[in-house]
Each structure stands twice: as C-alpha cells, then as structure tokens.
Design a protein that fits this description.
Length: 414
C-alpha cells in the first residue's frame, strides 16, 4: 500500500529529502509547494515529481495528497503542522517541533484526536554516537547514567550566513538571530535518544554577541535575541544531569562533526571529539572511532550539491557507519545508491515515516518524543533571559503506546 506526499518548502534541505521520498517504494507520488513558486517548479522539474500546488492551503485541500513534509523556516513549523493535522494529513516535520510550549501541546492533542502520524525528522536519533550509546545502554554497559553532554557547535561563518540569506531574502539578518536554544534537538535529541529520560528543570547562561554585523542584534532581530552562544544545565528525571551547548560563534570545524556527545555512567562512559570517540570503563579505554565513522555516498562535486554551501556539503554526503549495519537491512533497495546525510540518518528517518504512515503505528520520534527533544530548549532561553534562574521544564508525558504500535482507536475521530 502506498501514499502520496507533498513537500512544503522547496529549499536546499527539502530538495535533498524529496529525492528520498520519491525513491521510497511506499510513496507513489510527490508534489511540492513553496512561497517562491519558481523553487517548487524547479524541484519538480529536476526530480520529475508529480506536480506543484500554488499554496500550502491548496495542497491541504487536495484529495491527491495524503501526507505533507514540512521544510519551511524554523519558527513556522508549529502552526503549519497543526494546520496540516487538522486538514487530515499525516506530517513529517523538519526540526524543531515548534517555538512555543502551547504549540507543542496543541500538536500532541491533535495527534491524539486524529490518530494521524506526526514525526519530527531529528537526525540525532540515528547519529552514530547515539546509536552506539543506545546499544550500550540496552546492554546495561553504562550502569546508571548520571551525567551526559550534547553539543551542537555550528559556527555562523561555516554555512549559516548563506543558508539564512537563501531563505530570508532581504531581511535575512532579522531571522539569522534565531535563538540557539530554540534549535536544541541536534544536541538534546542525541543525548535522550540513547536513554529514556527527560528534563525536569534547567538553568541556562547566554553569551551576548559582540560581532557587530547586525546578526544577533536585538535592534534587528525579529526574536529580540542577541545570544549567539548558550549553555544549559538540565536536571533529569530520576536524578542526574545533562549539559547542552548551542554555539554559533565558535572556532570549531562543524563541517566535520557538528554534533558531539558524552555519557557517564557508574560502570562505563563514552566520550566524543571531532575525529575520535572512545568507550571507557574500569578496565581501560577502547577507541571506537571506526565504528562511528561514516562512509561517503556522494562526491563533493555531485550536481545535486550545486546550490549547497561548501561548508554544509559534508552534512549531505555522509553515508552509514558500521554501527548502523544492524539497522539498514530494513531499508528499500532503491536507497542503495541514494544520497544520505547528517552522519547516515536521512535514509532511516524517511523509512521510519513511511512505515509509520503505512502501518498506522507510532514512529520513534513521535510527538511525545519530539516534545522532549524541543521543549526544554524553549524553557532554557527563558532561564537565560532571567540571568540563569532555575526553571521547571514541563513534560508532556510518555506516548500512550510503544513505538511500533497504533494509537488507541478510542483517541481517533471518525
């Protein structure tokens, strides 16, 4: 059984995923729409997709579209997801889930009311370090994890200026000041994706930017934000803590590895730097870098990367790592020579969504999990604005069913 999908937003990132959605045998037709119609038309022509729609509303009104994949600007996701769910469409959304707690609550309520699939495409769910740590945790090798770290260290000079100019038009500086802690999922998701925990409180410190180029400037920012670097310490349920760094002005080669992680347990620990990763216990240190290193799937001069900033290209061409081997048998053969990205996560995320819609079951990064990856960062920003005051982090609870199970029929509307 197949379904149809509409791409909402046809920018740099969307075109990469459109290739995978189009190749997946579980999707019969892929459409596109964009506020700049020429971009949607170009995407459809380039990939020979099914067609375009003049607007998001027209796409939602069409019986020819069963699901939508939202790849619009970050602060628009929450309202667009809600609009799509209420129109009866399954939803795949790029990160973050939303920028307000009320939006997150409304998305969860809409999923419960409709029984439709919602999935956030958080790449760290399949980051090789997270996969490795998840396997170790399932084996009990960590013992009790009492401390963890997740860093998303992506310097503005390494691709973000170009990305914001591409998506923001003449007013791009107003949007480039997007608060770092409103984009926390590549760090939080990597930590919590390896262990079933959630944040219960936070204290956060923000660094006021001093570059003076109109980015991260409250007089220009549509978000009233001048923090370019932020560090948050979260208390976790059941005890222990998690430190999250979101850095946008940092001397760090994010094109090699933009997310990195550490977990410390009573019996074992894992630590990661840019080019090496180690497992440690009382017996010694084991270098596991080879298990986590990804194999490239495309060359740097692949024509599909023509519009992608050189500093961002490594995010698009990285294939699977050895630690992924236990997960990739389920992938369709059509993905064998398809582009991958974000350390091998894209193939697995697309397949998760297709399987969830086809079988009517809960995907791994469902609405409840997405909330635990996103919402803590929203509270962290508020803490920073209160000079690091420790604030409680509300939790939306566990999903009502396990991953791979269908939502209760009683929660669905006819």
């Amino acid at each position: 059984m197949t379904f149809t999908l509409g791409m909402v937003g046809a920018g740099q990132f969307a075109s990469h995923f459109a290739t995978l959605f189009d190749k997946h045998p579980g999707i019969s037709d892929v459409y596109a729409t964009d506020v700049i119609p020429e971009r949607a038309e170009h995407l459809v022509d380039e990939l020979a997709l099914a067609g375009t729609f003049p607007s998001f509303e027209a796409m939602l009104a069409s019986p020819d579209v069963d699901a939508v994949a939202i790849f619009t600007q970050r602060w628009t996701h929450g309202p667009l997801v809600l609009q799509a769910l209420r129109a009866g469409k399954h939803v795949y959304s790029a990160v973050p889930m939303a920028t307000a707690v009320t939006e997150i609550e409304s998305i969860i309520a809409a999923v419960q009311e409709t029984g439709l699939t919602y999935m956030m495409g958080e790449t760290s769910q399949y980051n090789p370090a997270t996969v490795f740590a998840r396997q170790k945790a399932e084996q009990g090798a960590f013992g009790r994890v009492f401390y963890a770290e997740g860093d998303y260290v992506h310097d503005m000079d390494l691709g973000f200026y170009d990305a914001y100019k591409y998506s923001g038009g003449d007013g791009w500086k107003a949007t480039a000041s997007y608060p770092p802690m409103w984009y926390p999922t590549h760090a939080i998701g990597g930590v919590l994706g390896a262990m079933p925990r959630h944040a219960v409180s936070v204290s956060c410190i923000g660094v006021h930017d001093d570059r003076g180029d109109g980015v991260f400037d409250t007089e220009v920012s549509m978000f009233d934000n001048d923090y370019s670097n932020m560090t948050a310490l979260f208390e976790l349920d059941g005890g222990g803590s998690m430190r999250i760094n979101e850095f946008r002005r940092v001397g760090f080669p994010s094109y090699i590895r933009e997310s990195r992680f550490r977990w410390f347990g009573t019996d074992g620990s894992f630590e990661q730097l840019v080019t090496n990763s180690v497992w440690q216990d009382r017996d010694g240190v084991t270098d596991v870098s080879d298990q986590i290193a990804t194999r490239p799937t495309m060359s740097e001069d692949d024509p599909r990367l023509a519009d992608v900033s050189p500093a961002l290209r490594s995010s698009f061409i990285s294939g699977h790592a050895p630690v992924h081997d236990a997960l990739t048998d389920r992938l369709p053969e059509e993905f064998a020579f398809a582009p991958n990205g974000h350390e091998g996560s894209h193939h697995l995320l697309v397949d998760d969504f297709v399987r969830a819609v086809d079988k009517g079951v809960l995907p791994p990064v469902n609405a409840w999990q997405a909330a635990r990856y996103t919402l803590p960062g929203l509270i962290a920003l508020e803490s920073a604005r209160r000079d690091g005051e420790r604030l409680p982090v509300p939790d939306q609870g566990d999903a009502p069913v396990a991953v791979g199970e269908a939502l209760p029929v009683a929660d669905r509307v006819s």
